[in-house]
UniProtKB/TrEMBL annotation:
UniProt record similarity statement: Belongs to the Ca(2+):cation antiporter (CaCA) (TC 2.A.19) family.
Composition skew (Polar residues), residue ranges: 271-281
Pfam family, one: Na_Ca_ex
UniProt KW RNA-binding keyword: no
Disordered: region residues: 254-285
Location in or out of the cell: Endomembrane system
Source organism of this protein record: Psilocybe cyanescens
Identification of the protein by name: Sodium/calcium exchanger membrane region domain-containing protein
A single GO molecular function term of this UniProt record: calcium:proton antiporter activity
């Protein structure tokens, strides 16, 4: 039932109400003013103007952030009208629209290093930063959160295949016969990349069939395959924990004043404290020491409750089209400014591609995944974060390779070795974290810290030129 929403959908609002909802969808909409500003700077600033490209990059960067959020808002509205599995796929797909647009524009301009770095960086951002924040945010509310371990193990296998596809061309390059000419090796690497890319696309098609048709139950939040989440015995974080702390001590003070109990030096209650409270005294609030289990079942009331859409279907589709066009134009100015900004040596292309561009592209799915994780819908969070990484690895990367083949651009799967190793370590770490089917805030904290570590290393990593890998590959 991938097209059946989990709850009934209410009546669609009018066009005026929909436009009002778009306007007040997020405080990030105040950044929309940077769209015309970035366009004006691109056309108005002369080429000789100092730091022209840096200024255009910054304003274009800021302009894409609210566009990505609006893209996520429209995606959520579409998700209300379909099943949970298809909703996760829509969030991952349209959440990757910004990365795909930036990658296509960079490919057309033959910025191959930016293309490769931005795609690998998007995988790292989703696996470490987005997933880490989901685990951390959910861990603030739940002692342990469970999710569908079967689907996660399958996703880990798919990510492992994508890592192998990226590492093998590098192994081929460094293990090739030294007598092989550069031209012949470049031809062979391109041929290998094209063949592997087509196979990866077939794997992704099979994954979609598996997820949306043959094994849809594995990707639902509720079911026997999902491990039950566990609450804290008493809340440890947030305002609820503070209120319970005050409540507990207030009750203890009332009991002490009523019974005249005293505390022995060793911390135990004296004999007086064990006396029964008088009938007129307030009842003492008791807190259980053992954790109680949170069973994520949908009650009949929740099931029958209507979801109130904020946008009509026509306005939602129109918003998607308009935002996509605006992203494409703004992304072109963004990509145009990268060379000029990095030529000064203050920031490398690797850091721009691996860290900055993915932060912009993942803004929408980042917010969506973290929001639903707090609601104990961790399977949906994994569908957005990990599913987005799988989509980048098994669809976007091979699609860009095939598109480069069509356009005559020498886009290969021979990535920077350091970027490939970082991707391998990220997949390995996430595989260890999710293998038990449970998460907590510390695991999320670990993933976020690993992302910061990689960010620090990429700030100082100068990168290697494409000519170092394959001297004969030029646009």
């Amino acid at each position: 039932m991938i097209l059946s929403p989990p709850r009934p959908v209410g009546e669609a609002p009018s066009v005026f109400e929909s436009l009002k909802a778009i306007l007040f969808a997020s405080w990030l909409n105040v950044l929309l003013v940077f769209i015309p500003v970035s366009w004006a700077l691109h056309f108005a600033l002369p080429q000789s103007f100092a730091n022209r490209d840096t200024i255009i990059f910054v304003f274009s960067f800021l302009a894409i952030i609210p566009l990505a959020k609006l893209l996520g808002f429209a995606t959520e509205e579409l998700s209300l009208r379909v099943g949970q599995t298809l909703a996760g796929l829509l969030n991952a797909t349209l959440g990757n629209a910004v990365e795909l647009i930036v990658a296509i524009i960079a490919l057309i301009k033959c910025e191959l290093r930016v293309v490769q770095a931005s795609l690998v960086g998007s995988i790292l951002s989703n696996l470490l930063l987005v997933l880490g924040m989901c685990f951390f945010a959910g861990g603030m509310k739940y002692s342990e959160q469970g999710f569908g371990i079967s689907a996660v193990q399958l996703n880990s296998s798919l990510l492992a295949i994508s890592v192998i596809a990226v590492l093998l061309p590098a192994a081929f390059h460094f293990a090739a016969d030294p007598s092989l000419t550069d031209a012949q090796e470049a031809h062979d690497i391109l041929a290998v990349s094209h063949g592997v890319a087509i196979i990866l696309l077939f794997i992704y098609a099979a994954y979609l069939f598996f997820q949306l048709y043959s094994h849809t139950a594995l990707y639902q939040d509720k079911g026997e395959h999902s491990i039950v989440s566990t609450d804290y015995a008493t809340p440890k974080f947030g305002m609820k924990a503070i209120r319970n702390f005050r409540h507990r001590h207030d009750a203890a003070d009332i009991e002490a004043s009523t019974t005249g109990s005293t505390r022995a030096p060793n911390g135990a209650d004296s004999v007086e404290s064990s006396q029964t409270m008088t009938s007129g005294s307030p009842a003492h609030v008791r807190y259980e020491d053992s954790a109680h289990t949170h069973v994520p079942t949908i009650t009949e009331k929740e099931h029958d409750e209507e979801e109130k859409p904020s946008l009509s279907v026509a306005v939602t589709v129109g918003l998607l089209v308009v935002v996509t066009v605006l992203v494409a134009i703004t992304a072109e100015w963004l990509v145009d400014s990268i060379d000029g900004m990095t030529d000064g040596g203050h920031i490398s292309k690797e850091f721009v591609g691996m860290i900055l561009l993915p932060i912009v592209g993942n803004a929408a799915e980042h917010v969506t995944a973290v929001t639903v994780s707090v609601k104990d819908k961790l399977n949906l969070s994994l569908g957005v974060a990990v599913g987005s990484s799988i989509q980048i690895a098994l669809f976007v990367i091979p699609f860009i390779v095939v598109l480069g083949w069509i356009l005559g651009k020498p886009m290969t799967l021979l990535f920077d070795p350091y970027e490939s190793v970082a991707m391998f370590l990220a997949v390995l770490t996430v595989n260890y974290v999710v293998q038990d089917g449970k998460s907590n805030w510390l695991e999320g904290f670990i993933l976020m810290c690993l992302y910061i570590i990689l960010g620090v290393t990429f700030w100082f990593y100068p990168g290697i030129s494409s000519n170092f890998l394959l001297p004969n590959i030029v646009c």
